[in-house]
Specification:
By secondary structure, the protein is of the alpha+beta class. It is built from 3 helices and 6 strands; from the N terminus they run H-H-E-E-E-H-E-E-E. The longest helix has 15 residues.
Length: 142
């Protein structure tokens, strides 16, 4: 079970998040023409913890969650919902294939505006969360 799959299911199951974006949550990308607003999720990096005897069954992952909207007001409402859902989260993130135990999740946020090439369209507003997640992982047996 990957932390990205667990986070994906966690956000899809959060009623406050889905109130704003429905099921428009993509892994890295969304299909072209997807209606705004929406979220994208991607793993940026991950590292397993070790000690002298081997793997500890814990990992640290850096996961990016992006909010995409056509207004700052919508972006900020969704960003607040995402932050409330994940920042400080501890416990199981359940998926169809099981669950991942999250020990701690910390969110940092940065905002951006992307002007449209077509001046008739509104700009795209983005809130990017970098989530530092400490979680359990399976240990390979050799």
């Amino acid at each position: 079970m990957s932390i990205v799959s667990a986070l994906y299911q966690h956000l899809r199951g959060d009623h406050e998040v889905t109130y704003h974006v429905g099921q428009r949550i993509g892994r890295s990308v969304v299909p072209q023409g997807t209606e705004f607003p929406y979220l994208t999720i991607q793993l940026l990096s991950g590292a397993s913890d070790h000690y002298q005897g081997g793997a500890t069954a814990y990992a640290d992952s850096l996961v990016q969650v992006d909010v995409w909207a056509r207004s700052t007001k919508t972006r900020d409402r969704i960003a607040d919902a995402v932050r409330r859902s994940v920042d400080g989260f501890s416990g199981p993130m359940n998926t169809d294939a099981g669950s991942v135990w999250v020990h701690h999740c910390r969110a940092t946020r940065a905002d951006a505006e992307y002007p449209s090439a077509d001046k008739r369209e509104k700009p795209i507003y983005n809130a990017r969360f970098d989530l530092t997640i400490k979680h359990a992982e399976s240990v390979p047996v050799f």
